[in-house]
């Protein structure tokens, strides 16, 4: 026999093993034949083909991880029991404090915001916040320690009242944990707050009252209150420990299985196909598995070295278990800290924080709006005068008709008390059960700042009220020297002069003279009777545009020509036809700014302020168009339609102006954008088309055909986004199965739950609140199955027969042009799970039992929102949804007082401009705009130069501060300032803040409060304002 190298033998062995597998021959026979062929002993062949395997002992677990029961692979261990106990106690603690007034300690305190988190600049929303909990959440231990220190930093007297905090001579005081006030300042503050402290001590335990006053923002959590970190830290620890118990149980099971596997793999006598694996690969497999086993042993060895004591009883295991848990948490948190910093250094994970949202998204919209260049739209005189006879007609029973009538002849913007009187007159038929007129009592809230568009003439104020005109006249008499004498002389000169500014001449006549149109053609016509002043007003009001012309290809935003013409005319009427002194040259010499440019910056500033004094409302604010989004007005139209089309809510003249708005904003491709400046989207197209048809537009009109073609070309209404689908479901043009679940029972979850709706941003929360109610109630327009217009819409909006659509398969459908931020896979999975929950009968008993409680809470919460905002609500979307919800809860009774109160506040959101009537994104921006405007006047040092303007702004800001006047404090909103109410309905303190719009709106905003306060402080620099 020839000698063969080991490599040759190894190759032969492999071939022999392969032959064994292929021919199913006995392994021993093959090996013997191979040994004989190469003159080798069979034992040598076996030794060559088989790896030696060490004997691995059973895995030695540390005492805290040893099973408590006889089952070897059980998860139950002392560490597991400890983790469960910590979790349970922490949740009980969180549940207690999430329902207590302690969560109302949202005041900043001495620490300031920058200590809120060590890594606040890296915390983000949604998924980023979830990752932060694991990677960057270790600072919660520091915050918990500081919270505990806050509770111990002060001293307490025997009577329970907390005294001044520690003077700060400790480490925590250096971080701003406790105040460093001097004894003198602290004593002064103690005297000032003595009443509040006593009141607080009556409702809050002594040891908690101090924590409430000193915890501040560092220890504040939106749902857990000042003791949030003390709850969150042990919860975090228990989650880590439970996870580690699961990992260790998995490691133990895996260890036993791997030991059994390599034992069989290395044993020549083992049965099965283990011996059919070539020894070359068998050795490699055994080495890899052995390395894994060694690693598991080393991991457990660390625990055994840490906890050397072995115990057979559960009682003896507690001290080792606690020591092991503390060591594990410390090591793990340190490791997480290193991982987080490494991620930040390598820029693997750098989500932006809430305070630092970053720039625009990298994937911008590449499409642009498509307008017909040079096409100007004009508001016809019929629309301006409230004549709706030329509006689009429809074969539906919902046609506008002449019987509704027109109350007056001209649109005008009524503000403050004038607006309240107009609304009360419009709803004066509302009677209580006893027959008394209750319309005036339903119109609650501070009137200052309110602005509505009406066709009614100005209503006289009641004897108890002082109108804004009276206030302005009083200011003129007191602030302008010799104004009475000058006015008397002018009146004597013009006693018999019946000019356009005479108080006997209606303001509407002037506007009619300025904007005169041909009734048959949408184009302006020349009026030879227009005088120079009227032409000047026209020029100023149009802002350089063609009077009353609207061309979206040049600018899709209006310039408020109607409002400006009204305000300028009103100013001239009240001031004997004279412009302010600084722009009087426009009237005296007929010169323009180009012909007479300002010589200095101060002169330019004076002209600017003088111009804006023309536009100031009688109550002191500056009004203007705050429209833009196209999805606001359609929601109101759907609400109006499903409530039976009440004319007091949307009158026929308003319908005509709304149709004009939709028509002039339609783009050349037939669609509408989500916003007036965006390209066409399915969201905008579907919802605007729906609204136009409900308002009376006929399906055969050219612009309606164009809109329908755009929708069908993109796949029909099933491709629109969720909010449009929601409105379609309400009106009966889509089955509720086509909309993802909005379960109202989510509100019943504990406040500490991560996905509780109370944690949402206020606007998001207040929209999905009524959505959850309407979805849970499965509200549908009561006449949907018999209304011919709804039948037509079901055929027009879809590319296939309505009855053949499988609605459940359309829930996630959305057009690519609308899918700017695709829904994550996890969210789709969650929505699919909710769909199963909604539709499977097996869940029906549980769902029915809990849903009623969820619906009841939604109704209670919506009622609180309505009363806190005087039925204005936080924004236009939830305004419409809350109104429909009130209508449904009243058994579709349109005369219910809550429903009437809602309808009385609808005009607050409507605005008229040269592009028609639109719904604003808020009930205006009155306080926000006025605060900036008066700060600009102050910066120029012109407060006393324009004393009436400044005094009116002072009055407005004073009356706009939320819940600060007798009028606002007499409303039900004031009752919700209690700590329990704020806690229950997720509100902060409202009293004393400033809103974005009006006091009656009731929602304070931090930056609006800051700007409002700055405006007040600026006005305090004016001696004239302060003297008055």
From TrEMBL:
Region (Disordered): 183-206, 477-503
Classification via SUPFAM superfamilies: Terpenoid cyclases/Protein prenyltransferases
UniProt similarity note: Belongs to the terpene cyclase/mutase family.
Record bears the keyword Isomerase: yes
NCBIfam families attached to this UniProt entry: squalene_cyclas
GO terms for cellular component: lipid droplet
Squalene cyclase N-terminal domain: residues covered: 650-913
Annotated transmembrane regions: 75-94, 317-339
The keyword Transmembrane is annotated on this UniProt entry: yes
InterPro entries per UniProt: SQ_cyclase_N, Squalene_cyclase, Terpenoid_cyclase/PrenylTrfase
Identification of the protein by name: Cycloartenol synthase
UniProt feature, compositional bias: Basic and acidic residues: 477-495
Span of the signal peptide: none
One BP term from GO: triterpenoid biosynthetic process
EC annotation from Swiss-Prot or TrEMBL: 5.4.99.8
Alphabetically ordered keywords of this record: Isomerase, Membrane, Repeat, Transmembrane, Transmembrane helix
PANTHER family attached to this UniProt entry: LANOSTEROL SYNTHASE, TERPENE CYCLASE/MUTASE FAMILY MEMBER
GO MF entries: cycloartenol synthase activity
Gene3D superfamilies tied to this protein: 1.50.10.20
